[in-house]
Amino acid sequence: MLDIIIIGSGPAGLAASMYLGRLKMKTMVIGDSVGGTITTTTDIENYPGFKKISGEELSMLLKEHALEYGAEIREDIVKNVERKNKHFYLETEEGESFTSRAIIFATGTRRRKLPSKGADTFENRGVYYCALCDGPIFRDKVVAVVGGSDSAAKEALLLQEYASKVYLIYRGEKIHPEPPNLRRIEESDKIEVINRTNILEAKGDRKLRSVVLDREYKGSRELIINAVFVAIGGEPQSELARNLGVKTNSKGEITVDRQAKTNIEGVFAAGDVCDTKFKQAIVGVADGVIAAYSAYGYNKYIS
After folding, report:
1. Which residues, 6 or more positions from 199, have their beta carbon under 8 angstroms from its beta carbon?
2. Which has the closest alpha carbon to 240: 21, 32, 68?
3. What is the pLDDT of residues 110-146, one digit of tens each?
4. Active site residue ranges
5. Residue 271 phi, psi dihedral angles, 5° rounding
6. CATH assignment of 2-110+234-302, given 3.50.50.60, 3.90.226.10, 3.30.70.870, 3.10.320.10?
7. What is the pTM of this model?
8. Distance between CA atoms of 271 and 191, rounded to whole angstroms?
9. Whole-number Å distance between alpha carbons of 81 and 240
């Protein structure tokens, strides 16, 4: 019998496990990839204590900190969660089962796919979702990034280190990265922003060769590129929580109060899967600590 199981091993889940370890709770973290999606981020410059650190480095430090306090971390995927009486029963894809007194969902988000004709056909053959992973193979090529957020800007800034040209395609009036990254975009001689534009179709043969835009750009609706990197946000991975009866909002985000409590006693949530507006690693870590302390209090209450 575990005190608390944390589902999800990104920053929120790792921070929660570290804090619970300090509180001497018997804790297990289960996630398919330690560090989560932040491991695909090159430079993080808004995390206190580090002027600049990569997502992978930060994830490993969080993992080491959690292990230092005795948390158990397993790489696996939880496929089912049930509540029987006052306890929670979990089954994983590896065929293991665990029991705990409380659950913290820190399952994060999955990358939103490009909703354009042909995008699925050319996935991994010209349509990608991680510039850090796949950008280096497009040295001296022409690529595009879809999105207008800070994440999209970071993808474009990374890709300019390899590509000869980077288009940043955004459906809105203006891109909205953080000011330092906006300045870098504006100062770059490789990055060109195309606003008020959507990609209608991905075209090619064995590989992506071009995309069709919903309005003309420099006299043509067809843009010749070698790859497109998609950075249009994520969808909350809240299916397990919803199956358990946890309340979510219209976006599928888990609804929590300021103590990270859900509508079900003994179930807490933290990080990007929650209905918090500001999705950042630092916020997820703070959420994780709040959830940990609330789960600790719950364990003491039912003991």
Report:
1. 114, 116, 119, 146, 169, 211, 212, 213, 214, 228
2. 32
3. 989 999 999 999 999 999 998 988 999 999 999 999 9
4. 130, 133-134
5. 90, -160
6. 3.50.50.60
7. 0.84
8. 32
9. 7
